[in-house]
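Supplementary Text 2. Reproducibility record for the structural model of the 138-residue chain.

All settings were left at their defaults, and a single model was retained for analysis rather than an ensemble. We include the record here because the model underlies the residue-level annotations in Supplementary Table 4.
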Amino acid sequence: MTAELEVREVAAAVIAHKGKVLVQTRPEAGRYQGYWEFPGGGREPGESAQACACREVEEEVGLGITVLRSLDVVDWSYPGVRVRIEFMLCTPQDAEPEVHAREGQELRWVDGDELGALQFLPASQAVVDSLRVQLTED
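Retained model, structure tokens:
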């Protein structure tokens, strides 16, 4: 009998600005290094997904955001861990946002075509595919 893995609750911020979204690479030392992802991270006890997205974006890239709505919730199992990721559509609070790679990650504002050329974590792929279509149509 195998033990049931604990589910890690995660919030991911899909930050849209002028027809592009902000993406970042995973940290070099971690699992899936070099893959692309949306800024975000694990929720703290009692923390809402919206509050987590805002906190994580500030910590990772130094950007204030406004959460507009939930885009999707994805349950995914990776080796040794299960995650439940709430993807939040967000917008920068500043008209001309400046981002800073505070954790050594690469940051890019990408359009739909660029988004499709990057290697994302499997749990993010359905959201990436949907965004590609939306960004290409705009």
